[in-house]
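Writing this down once: the sequence line spells out the residues, with the fold written below as integer tokens. This is how one looks:
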Amino acid sequence: MVMAVAETTTAEGKSASGEARRVKRSSGMRAAAVLATSAVAGALSTAVQAQIVGAGPSAPVVIQTPNGLPQVNINKPGGSGVSVNTYNQFDVQKAGAILNNSATMVQTQLGGWINGNPNFGPNDVARIIVNQVNSPNPSQIRGALEIAGARAELVLANPSGIYLDGAGFINTSRATLTADCR
């Protein structure tokens, strides 16, 4: 939040010896500090909003659906129909997220109509979507995770754990969640 302030301010009070004093201070530095703090807070709130973050050579592209949900354009599946995707962070908020398993425009329950996955060719479809999270933090799944297009098995692996609170799965034939259980 940016706040307008006067260039100078006046303060009244008593000194340690009890004398009444009026002090005139410049608030230019204070205004600069408020502005800098606001800029940092704005940058942090943007970083906090990024809930699904791809990483490494198998990182998928994450965009937003027209209604603002995260849409993961998963990687092209190999010959056996397995799409492998790696992340630094994989958290699903209450509104949900979509894994795009369609080469063409498709309607989803959570995001409405979405464009086809640009990573796919005309006949590409994943049978299994593997999502590997490499993070010191557990994944938090607080909403539905929908597979757009062809139904597929979903694998979510995070060695730091997976926290479920309101989790759900749409258009999945099977969901496997795995964590390091030492």
Notes: The first strand starts at residue 8 and ends at 14. Residues 23 and 30 are 16 Å apart (CA to CA).
